[in-house]
Amino acid sequence: MTILARLKTETRAAHDRIETAMDLDRRIASREAYRDLLIRFYGFHKAWEEEAAGQAPDRGFFERRRKTQHLVKDLEALGLKSEDIIRLPQCRPLMPLLGSEAVLGSMYVVEGSTLGGTIIAREVERRLGFTAETGCAYFRSYGRDIAAMWRSFGAVLLEASSPKVDDLIVESAQKTFTVMHDWLCETP
After folding, report:
1. What's the confidence (pLDDT) of residue 188?
2. How many CB atoms lie within 10 A of CB 91?
3. In this structure, what DSSP letter does residue 133 have?
4. Does the reported pTM lie above 0.85?
5. Percent over 70 (pLDDT), the chain
6. Residue 78's pLDDT is what?
């Protein structure tokens, strides 16, 4: 079983748990609810990116996948000022990301949520009228390159995979799902 297949199998329950708990219908029912959802995503990504950046296996590969700038653009489009955004709460403490393999396991969750974001983006556009330019850049962060970005991530993950590190990769993904669930589904 490849590491990608193993991750999909061994994180399925955590994935389903967060998807159910998110209550997306409620979170995109109004402009205010949607803004609050983006604030939670910002708090997660801002903290996660700061933690993961120093341990990422390839700096350029990691930098192209940052989401915080998209969230800032969306939050500004929804009326927040830069000084308000930098004071938003962040997801702390994160689980420690000790080494590049742990970062790759954690990135599996973040990159997977980017894939799911395309579905959310369509709903946000349909319900609220936001596009990538007017408040939905985060959920459309890779635009037409979504499939290529996922494939390139999968290739890096497969290259890093070995019996020696695969348990750490899976454990990191599972912990990331837990942290993301707790942060996104907590009432601020």
Report:
1. 52
2. 21
3. T
4. yes
5. 99
6. 97
CB 166 within 8 A of CB 105: no
Residue 110 token pair: 């973040």
Q: Which residue in 24, 19, 43 sits closest to 188, CA to CA?
A: 43
126: which residues sit within 8 A by CB, 6+ positions away?
A: none
- Is the distance from CB of 101 to CB of 172 less than 8 angstroms? yes
Q: Which residues contact 164 (CB under 8 A, 6 or more apart)?
A: none
Confidence of residue 6 (pLDDT cuts 50, 70, 90): very high
Distant-in-sequence, close-in-space partners of 188: CB < 8 Å, separation ≥ 6:
36, 39, 40, 89
* pLDDT of the residue at 95: 78
**pLDDT over threshold 70, residue 187:** no
CATH number of the domain at 3-185, please?
1.20.910.10
Distance set, CA 158 to CA 15, 19, 20, 152 (Å) = 21, 26, 29, 10
Tokens describing residue 29: 């029912």
Rounded to 10 deg, the angle between the 166-185 and 100-128 helix axes is 40
Domain boundaries, the chain: 3-185
